[in-house]
Specification:
This protein has about 280 residues and is an alpha/beta fold. The chain is built from six helices and ten strands, in the order ββαβαβββαβαββαβα. The strands form three sheets. A six-stranded parallel sheet has the order 4-3-7-8-9-10, sandwiched between helices. α4 (about 165-175) links the parallel β7 (about 160-165) and β8 (about 185-190). The protein is globular and about 70 Å long. Pfam families: Abhydrolase_2 (PF02230).
């Protein structure tokens, strides 16, 4: 957004927060010829430069430690917009949410109709064939997103990865295979893809002690709660079982509920607290 001209010869740069609230205005440094001070580059300009650099230091320090992130992956046929609206209702002001969109591709389960999908789904039974290449490529894409956020200055242990249904499945697989140490995983109404590819015992990766919140409706007709039970049993053999929480919700189908979202909020706030 281009800022309009200020009053007289003054100009201001406005920094906006996540919600659009003004965080700070930065005055013009006064380097123009004719500025007050000793010559064109007077003492006031040097002081302004010093204060501006100091502000930027604290500005980036603030975002580095006070704006942890949740990367949340939507389910089959959805987009990131739907979950961004749902998560806005539980969002804490110090947490930033990223809700990316899956690519559009044919999905075998839905008669090869094209729709947003992180990978192909061939069947929804425990012994169904899985799109191994597609799952691994999707995980690499999510890892690249995490790596980019780390390059932008967000410590990986201040990032929670989450998702619903297919997105939850991908978030679990990605967290268990990435080299970046994450703060936690939120896995809603989902399963662990490529279960047989993981070791029978504990993993040795960066997230062997990761905190996992797994939630499932006990009336889910699409991804039955049995999938959630099998997943949590597998997870407890791979990572610290004390860090795995499995919650079920009476009467909930393949959807979400206020009770579940409050549990998600509590998990996120406890693992991404603001730093005093």
């Amino acid at each position: 957004m281009a800022a309009g001209p200020g009053r007289g010869s003054e100009r201001s740069g406005v920094f906006l927060g996540e919600s659009g609230a003004v965080l700070r205005t930065v005055p013009d440094l006064g380097w123009a010829p004719g500025a007050r001070g000793r010559g064109a580059f007077g003492c006031s300009a040097i002081l302004n430069l010093y204060l501006c650099c100091l502000f930027f230091f604290f500005f980036f320090f603030f975002f580095l430690f006070y704006f942890p992130q949740v990367i949340f992956l939507h389910g089959l046929g959805d987009t990131g917009h739907g979950w961004s609206e749902a998560l806005a209702g539980i969002k804490s002001p110090h947490v930033k949410y990223i809700c990316p969109h899956a690519p559009v591709m044919p999905v075998s389960l839905n008669m090869n109709m094209s729709m947003p999908s992180w990978f192909d789904i061939i069947g929804l039974s425990p012994d169904s064939q899985e799109d191994e290449a597609g799952i691994k490529q999707a995980a690499e894409n999510v890892k690249a997103l995490i790596d980019q956020e780390v390059k932008n200055g967000i410590p990986s242990n201040r990032i929670i990865l989450g998702g619903f249904s297919q997105g939850g499945a991908l978030s679990l697989y990605t967290a268990l295979t990435t080299h970046q140490k994450l703060a936690g995983v939120v896995a809603l109404s989902c399963w662990l893809p490529l279960r047989a590819s993981f070791p029978q015992g504990p993993i040795s990766g960066a997230n062997k002690d990761i905190a996992v919140l797994q939630c499932h409706g006990d009336c889910d007709p699409l991804v039955p709660v049995m999938f959630g039970s099998l997943t949590v049993e597998k997870l407890k053999t791979m990572i610290n079982p004390a860090n795995v929480t499995f919650k079920t919700y009476s009467g909930m189908m393949h959807s979400s509920s206020l009770e579940e979202m409050m549990d998600v909020k509590q998990f996120i706030d406890s693992h991404l607290p603001p730093i005093d």
